């Protein structure tokens, strides 16, 4: 009985690890307008459960026109929902000012049951965040 229980625990841990490997990687989105304004979002989810985020905004008539913001912390996945956490003592400093605590994104990919030729880009679609501008953003995985 102990052997069977150990086997099931090992299999469930391998499944969780495999899902984290699928999610880890680089994500980005860079919409541009015709007038030269640009916003760049980059997010790296590392295998070790840490992440780094970079946000660059260039608005010609903005004050200032060019701004850069950084964030870092840890992430966890459960049921295709990626939760982000930033430790105020360790992750927030003069450079890394974005606090991702209370941020949740859905990992979106093509269903294994979908046998069509339809191509669906892997992305993280943010659902919740205390960072107001990140809620509607979807970041696509760079492959």
Offer a quick outline of the entry:
The protein is of the alpha+beta class. The chain is built from 1 helix and 9 strands, in the order αβββββββββ.
Give the CATH H-level superfamily: NlpE, N-terminal domain
Q: What strand line-up does the widest sheet have?
A: 1-2-3-4-5-7-8-9
Largest sheet: 8 strands, antiparallel, barrel
Overall pLDDT score: 84
User: CATH class, please?
Assistant: Mainly Beta
CATH topology: Lipocalin
Shape: globular
Instruction: Compute the number of strand runs.
Output: 9
Low-confidence regions = 1-19
CATH architecture group name: Beta Barrel
The portion of residues forming beta strands comes to 35-45%
* Helix-strand makeup class: alpha+beta
| Helix content bin | 10-25%
Number of helices: 1
Count the domains. 1
Keywords: Signal
Protein name: Copper resistance protein NlpE
Signal peptide: 1-18
InterPro entries: NlpE_N_sf
Overview of the structural elements:
This is Copper resistance protein NlpE. InterPro entries: NlpE_N_sf. Keywords: Signal. The protein is built from 1 helix and 9 strands, in the order αβββββββββ. The chain has 143 residues and is α+β, with helices and mostly antiparallel strands. An 8-stranded antiparallel β-barrel has the order 1-2-3-4-5-7-8-9. A hairpin with a 4-residue loop joins β2 (38-45) and β3 (50-58).
């Amino acid at each position: 009985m102990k052997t069977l229980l150990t086997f099931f625990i090992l299999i469930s841990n391998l499944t969780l690890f495999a899902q984290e490997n699928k999610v880890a990687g680089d994500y980005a989105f860079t919409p541009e307008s015709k007038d030269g304004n640009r916003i760049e979002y980059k997010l790296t989810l590392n295998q070790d459960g840490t992440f780094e985020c970079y946000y660059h905004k260039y608005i010609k008539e903005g004050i200032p026109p060019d701004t850069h913001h950084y964030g870092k912390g840890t992430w966890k996945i459960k049921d295709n929902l990626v939760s982000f956490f930033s430790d105020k003592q360790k992750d927030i400093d003069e450079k890394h000012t974005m606090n991702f605590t209370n941020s949740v994104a859905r990992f979106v990919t093509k269903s294994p049951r979908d046998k069509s030729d339809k191509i669906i880009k892997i992305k993280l679609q943010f659902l919740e965040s205390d960072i107001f501008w990140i809620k509607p953003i979807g970041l696509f995985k760079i492959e």
